[in-house]
């Protein structure tokens, strides 16, 4: 299967639906998205490290870390989904890797839905973090 090949499905005599590799990507887009995917990879590592620190090192005189731990996990997931929704896509298009094309179109819908759920959960978690910190501070006043 070559990317220049297309599959045609005849809907009627006048309409033809063309499926295949159609999007173009210039080097500038490839470079920026790839560089930002590298930054997102650092974000995954650092948020994983932060979640590990929150889970392993708790002192009695510090506020609870349940919500900040989940916030670090969700932030790491946002970075993960960025790589798989944007970085993987631009590498697939620019380098024209056939297997990436099939893999990308297999997981794009579930990954997009999960990224939207993660994006929706983060603001609510920030509210809970703020309320938790307020409750901890007001208890110690």
Automatic annotation (TrEMBL):
<keyword id="KW-0812">Transmembrane</keyword>
<keyword id="KW-0472">Membrane</keyword>
<feature type="transmembrane region" description="Helical">
    <location>
        <begin position="66"/>
        <end position="95"/>
    </location>
</feature>
<dbReference type="InterPro" id="IPR017452">
    <property type="entry name" value="GPCR_Rhodpsn_7TM"/>
</dbReference>
<protein>
    <submittedName>
        <fullName>G-protein coupled receptors family 1 profile domain-containing protein</fullName>
    </submittedName>
</protein>
<feature type="domain" description="G-protein coupled receptors family 1 profile">
    <location>
        <begin position="46"/>
        <end position="141"/>
    </location>
</feature>
<keyword id="KW-1133">Transmembrane helix</keyword>
<feature type="transmembrane region" description="Helical">
    <location>
        <begin position="30"/>
        <end position="54"/>
    </location>
</feature>
<feature type="transmembrane region" description="Helical">
    <location>
        <begin position="107"/>
        <end position="131"/>
    </location>
</feature>
<dbReference type="GO" id="GO:0016020">
    <property type="term" value="C:membrane"/>
</dbReference>
